[in-house]
Sequence to fold (954 residues):
Amino acid sequence: MSFIAKPKVSHPGLPRNALGLTLRDYEGGMSTLCAGCGHDSITAALVQAAFELSIPPHRMAKLSGIGCSSKTPAYFASASHGFNSVHGRMASVATGANAANGQLHYIGVSGDGDTLSIGLGQFCHAVRRNLNMLYVLENNGVYGLTKGQFSASADVGSKAKKGEVNQQPPIDPCQLALSIGCTFVARSFSGDKDQLVPLLKAGLSHRGFAMVDVISPCVTFNDHEGSTKSYDFTRKHFHAAIYADYVPPATEIRSRQAAGSVREVTMHDGSRLLLHKVGADYDPSDRVAAFEYLSRRQSEGQVVTGLLFIDEGKPDMHEVQNLATEPLNTMGYANLNPGQKALDAIQARFR
Amino acid sequence: MQPTDISNPQYFHKVVDCQWGCPAHTDVPGYIRLIAQGRYTDAYMLNRQANVFPGILGRVCDRPCEPVCRRARVEKEPVAICRLKRVASDLREDVAALLPKAPRRKNGKRVALIGAGPASLTVANDLLPMGYEVVIYEALAVPGGLMRSNIPSFRLPAEVLDEEIGMIVGMGADLRLGTPVKSMKALLAEGYDAVFVGSGAPKGKNLKLPGRDEAAANIHIGIAWLESVAFGHVERIGERVLIIGVGNTAMDCCRTSLRLGAKNVKVMARKPREFFKASAWELQDAEEETVEIVVNHSPKSFVMEKGRLTGMIFEKMEYEIDARGRITAEKIAGEEFFPCDDVVLAIGQENAFPWVERDLGIEFDKWDVPVVDQVTYQGTRPGVFFGGDSAFGPKNIIWAVEHGHQAAISIHKYCHGEDIARRMPYGMNLATSKMGMHEWSYSNAYDPVERRVMPHVSLKERFKKLNLEVELGFTAEQFTREVERCLNCDIQTVFTAKLCIECDACVDICPTRCLTITTNGPEDELRQRLSAPANNLSQDLYVSTGLPQTGRVMVKDEDLCVHCSLCAERCPTGAWDMQKFTLKVPYAADEAAESVPQTRTGT
Ligand SMILES: Cc1ncc(C[n+]2csc(CCOP(=O)(O)OP(=O)(O)O)c2C)c(N)n1
Ligand code: SF4
Ligand code: SF4
Ligand code: SF4
Fold:
């Protein structure tokens, strides 16, 4: 971490987005994470994504649990809403918040410990409900904040800093998400913003639960030789299944890539996701094939990244539950509390 | 792009924009930091190494450093560099013990310097401590050259001049006042080992228009007139004065007129304001003192009535200016009469060498300017050197100082039979400025404060006395804020590629988005791909070798770095480090030290 605050001075030629804001308007407080932590790069990517999408900062809600990863919402979009909840409980808090106001951009930030151990049930139910949110899993294979114990995403054979070798098989959040019906599954690497930023943008624009698992090296406890979540290891075993370009609705310019290698997905808001295939033919709309592909590559020791699965057709929680589209806080007291007479009438129905 | 060669001192020198912009390469951030630490005497002495006259230049330097100051690119206003120089000079303690001394044993070489202006004095400053005998010939009764005769004392008090000139002459120069050199031939015959001509550009240009000769009594040539005022020969001027010309001399003339009793002073400019030669601050000071600047008026004739000057006729000019700001056409759109009692001509200066015989092997070009080598400052006759305005026409004091330093090197080499063209290259020193985990040896926090405004004597008081200094100097509150505006450009961001793990931490933290990790490419294309496009082509890109993990490169755009050290604080591996850069500018004494160990001639 640094002890001097990032000064408000900025490049006079910094580009502005549709709202007239610069990237710097999407920044947050000074990070207290270790210098070089992958989580900080993800923060920077979120700043970039929100800036590029011209999301008004006050229309964003950031939620998290406990862990180094869960501290990061404090480091972006100071002007947005935020809730730092209990270890593993972020998904539930997000569900409640979303039910009360479905009109914000929900960004959940969690760790592999936070999500895959104590918060596993919470996570699964948010997926199952197709909660409309971007869920960023900052995956470093360890519990960073509690000094580097193996997490549930640590690979068998992975070495801890002190030398012990992990014996427990990992949970792959992407395979888990696919298996329980997640409508947007992606994986990326904090050290590759070219891939990460468009994925985050697509996730933010996806209607439904968008999970982005981001390999995010812990420089302090998990960036040594023998670790399978280090910068060096991830760079060597990185396998991009698909590269995505996110094209918001305003821009109607076609991608410059050769048409043959581009697949287009139309998002619910009318914008498009252009998928560039690299290597093998990959169909991100086929859940079974995606699952199979991931398992096969995983057994070959590859870290598959890119947009792995997307389904824009499923209704989200609001639609399924027929929840009010209007935020509760704008409904007015009379609507929220129709009075004794109305209550009596409802109760009468159950007598 | 090729990886940047940071072993070449000129690369980092260029990053220190002010030092690079200063003709004498004064270590600006170095002395500003010393002021910030309250070490005024040290700041003065550091300053004096390069620019010899910190007190004088802290008031009247033309400040080529300020427009190039990095702060002016980050915000609008540069650091008040010149004013801070004056702070060091005003607050320093007695420096007598710290000044260089001339050795008692001389080296047997005698050098003649012509004119006791900044160029000659700098030569003396550099050569006296080396054991040279230095004879300075000065036509006037006081030393200082144009610094004394042409800069009004309300801008530059005589005491400041006396003190700093005294520091040099006091080393034992043989200063011969009131002794103009009338014949170069005669001087050469005296057998000096070398001669340096630093006699300035002492002749103001005339304006030959109808009525000029008839009205001569009320038409004055700027620099001669200023000299007369400086020495008390002129004490009055008419109520209405027209100044012709808009250079800095014109500004001194109009402000002097006001102090000699003029009530209505107009500066007449032929062209629009963007073509003026005067420094912005001098124009501003003149206008503050109610001088009116009239643009687009070209002088046509002097008007006389009953044998007395009554005014001037000007042609009203109209210009067509293209998108690049150049005049493409001009036209006369009528005439206008301006009444006046006196006219001061400030339209430029010329060298005057009636005292140099033309059969000495000293060549002059078609403008009667001596032919001088740009590096060695030697004329076409070996052993005769030129510097300051006499060499290259009117520039400014700090250029004259730099010429003096360079000429001193040449003179030393010449006197010792060395090749004067073979000169020591610049050197540098780089040392980490990291003191602890999060501690740096300099104040790295960015202070958004705006440039402080120099306090002036009130307009009412100002005109009461001719030599009342107008600028009061910064207050303590002001300079303690102003020093924090300096961006410490001499603390360089130095990158070690093999340590980088490409975690992006530095890229993300940089407040001005100077850093990018990307694939290499040709410069013009790379410039557009950076975190923020690098459109300022006058600023370099610092490109690393291939990074260990991906082979990409780290690119730094030197344009807007605020030297905040955040990249180095954030870097988990220490691949970025903030290192103090010290430019080693060779002076005559360094050249001498360098040539001492040559005891063996080698076979
Ligand atoms: C209920 C509860 N149990 C345990 C803890 C202790 N704890 C704090 S952070 C953490 C793990 C965080 O790991 P992860 O989510 O992977 O985040 P990282 O720090 O690695 O980014 C644990 C177990 C806690 N704060 N609360
Ligand atoms: S302990 Fe690890 S996860 Fe936590 S801030 Fe440090 S590097 Fe990041
Ligand atoms: S010192 Fe580093 S972080 Fe600060 S502006 Fe310069 S490059 Fe950016
Ligand atoms: S912070 Fe250091 S290691 Fe990380 S990318 Fe920058 S220079 Fe490389």
Summary: The interface with chain A takes residues 73-74, 438, 444-446, 448, 501-505, 507-509, 511-513, 532-533, 535, 549-550, 560, 562, 564-566, 569-573 of chain B (CB under 8 Å). Chain B has 23 helices and 23 strands.
